[in-house]
Amino acid sequence: MSTLLEMRGITKVFPGVKALDRVSLTVEAGEIHAICGENGAGKSTLMKVLSGVYPHGSYDGDIIYDGQPLQNRSIRDSEHKGIIIIHQELALIPLLSIAENLFMGNEVATNGVISWPLAMQKTGELLRQVGLNEPPSAVVGKLGVGKQQLIEIAKALSKNVRLLILDEPTAALQEADADRLLDLMLELKAQGVTQIIISHKLNEIGRVADRITVIRDGTSVSTLSKDEISEDRIIRDMVGRDMAHRYPERTPNPGEMLFEVENWSCFHPEQAGRQMIKSVSLNVRKGEIVGIAGLMGTGRTELAMSIFGRSYGKGHQGTVKMHGKPVDVSTVTKAIEAGISYVTEDRKALGLILEEPILKNISLANLFGIAKNAILDKRREAQVAESYRKQLAIRTPGVQQKVVNLSGGNQQKVVLSKWLFTDPQLLILDEPTRGIDVGAKFEIYTIMKDLAEQGRGVLMISSEMPELLGMCDRIYVMNEGRIVGELSREEASQERIMALIVKDNNRNGGKTTGKVA
Fold first, then answer.
1. How many CA atoms lie within 13 A of 495 on its CB side?
2. 3-state secondary structure at position 121
3. pTM to 2 decimals?
4. What residues are paired with 375 via a beta bridge?
5. Could you tell me which residues are beta bridge partners of residue 165?
6. I need a surface site. Which of 209, 301, 401, 493 has the fewest CB within 10 A?
């Protein structure tokens, strides 16, 4: 292989933060090169330097691409050289067609006039190349995230990509869509497309990557060849220490009954008559961490949202109890007053105001907690935020930092801080470690352990089977909006959970598809 890319001594400084400190990276032509590191290590920043998001002159160091110095002034400069980046937040316009998205800014024209027949033809060819069976006229917003990810890759191919950069491409995908994307990466490699992938999913990296570069605290630590790749080695280089235990040690000691749901049912807020949750009953004791497992789309999030007074609470039936007494959870405010908090699965869209500083996000759910005589106390707000910054080890120069500038793991800690400030007795965590690295995951697990030891209850929904098995005292299994089984810590295994789902599907004549969670 010949060297396609060299990044030498790249240093990037933001106000108060050195994001990159003399990072070096070498990528061979035709390889898939993975970049790993904890949240905030500098992975995405390095790729933004490469792709022109941060233009030449805003960083120190040299970039050599295809044997020539690379001095991109913009993303357009990098795209003209065949360097295309697909960000974790997809850059598609949902109300436009696939063809319109693919060729926006890169229109197919004859004598200065857009040729839609030719654009449709080329779109069809690109969709076939990425294995997406959709018409070019399909509206992007009506397609799933997995298909939108393939459209982004088709868009890159329309620009004659030579170096494709994928930032957490499978973070929001179900297992089948993730597998399809990884297969496509291998096909593109066979066609000679060099690729860089940023991912926290070490099993996926091991499947597709030829080499891995690990970045820690803004510095390149190691580059490993395929035969050197192992999860233990990658984790050790990422966090700077061996992690013999992926989960904090704890001795379950459940107390009296804290939270109960009895015969809970609710319906879709927009589709009358569509029952989402069907007579669900479950409970959580003080000091207990309880999990909810199931296939994607079986109603886990809808259950959590309805308990917390969100839109799925409309038209509900059944009873919610705290400390043995029925409570009203028909609105979010009433659920909070009852001692319940809910950490959403989508922190960026539903859990945070990204353009606001940390302190405003933390106080948002409990403004009375920072008020005197109905007037907000700014000093108290700052004190509360600073207390949680230290308590949860939020890595930031200060609480005035905008949340949008934080890593995923630190954003998740801000969401947790917001709900901890409401002093909940029951904390519902929906996908609490999605899109964060192993080091930050351990910190989230430790927070859960501490809450349980304080006598609070934790109800966790997760698509990560190992963390359900590693953290939960009991696991409820959901299927098609129902609880189909309950397993103790000793009984729980992936096989037992899947057996309950398959048995329920067979009983109802359904088919088992999707990802076990």
1. 1
2. helix
3. 0.68
4. 372
5. 85, 196
6. 493
Cβ–Cβ under 8 Å, residues 481 and 276: yes
Cα–chain-centroid distance for residue 356? 20
Q: Are 457 and 288 in contact (CB under 8 A)?
A: yes
d(CA 401, CA 158): 38
Distance CA 163, CA 192 (A): 10
Please identify which residue in the block is written with the tokens 């630590």. Answer: 221
367, 373, 374, 377 alpha-carbon torsion, rounded to 10°: -50
Helix-helix angle 438-453:408-420, to 10 degrees = 10
Contact 317, 277 (CB under 8 A): no
**Pairing of β 60-65 and β 68-69:** antiparallel
Beta bridge partners of 384: none
> Residues 170, 182: contact at Cβ < 8 Å?
yes
Q: For the chain, what percentages of helix, strand and coil (3-state, to nearest 5) are there?
A: 35, 25, 35
Mean pLDDT in order along the chain per 10 residues (517 residues): 92 84 94 86 90 93 94 91 86 91 82 84 91 91 85 88 90 77 92 92 87 90 85 77 72 93 86 82 97 84 90 74 95 95 88 94 94 91 94 89 86 94 96 79 91 96 87 94 94 87 70 41
Residues 65, 16 contacting (CB under 8 angstroms): no
Whole-number Å distance between alpha carbons of 425 and 96: 45
- Asked if 421 and 362 count as a contact pair (C-beta separation under 8 A), the reply is yes
Question: Which is nearest to 370 in space by CA: 355, 358, 385?
Answer: 385
∠ CA 38-41-42 to the nearest 5 degrees?
Answer: 135
Provide the 3-class DSSP secondary structure of residue 407: coil
**For residue 351, which of 336, 364, 339, 369 has the smallest C-alpha distance?**
364
Per the structure block, which two tokens stand in for 376?
A: 């907000």
